[in-house]
Amino acid sequence: MSGHVDKEYGFDRLFEAVVYFPEKVHAIVKEDPDIVFCENYAGETVLQFFSMEGRDDIVGLLLDMGARADEWAVYFACGPAHVSTVAILLAAGAEPDCEACSRELTAWGVPRKSESK
């Protein structure tokens, strides 16, 4: 990545496009391919944010645009148990931290396998 002049601005620009103007996302990413790696004030990418929201449509779009499925996106999707989002990320090559995901699921009230009997 060549670096982005203002990563938070890039996050906001891409975030607004995927929410309000999805038809413009392709042009925005073509103009600035690194925008998919921009982060907000908390260090989250747009992909990670929408993974946490379980927005499979947006997650798929961002992956198609070159965003990387990473362990954090999977972790964020695990918390609220967005199973379909986790599946999309895993299919895109994400390598999750299984122990961290397990702790996150437990924190959200999803019982571990040994507790579900």
From TrEMBL:
Top-rank lineage group of the source organism: Bacteria
InterPro entries registered for this protein in UniProt: Ankyrin_rpt-contain_sf
Gene3D superfamilies the record matches: Ankyrin repeat-containing domain
Protein name: Ankyrin repeat domain-containing protein
Source organism of the structure: Zooshikella ganghwensis
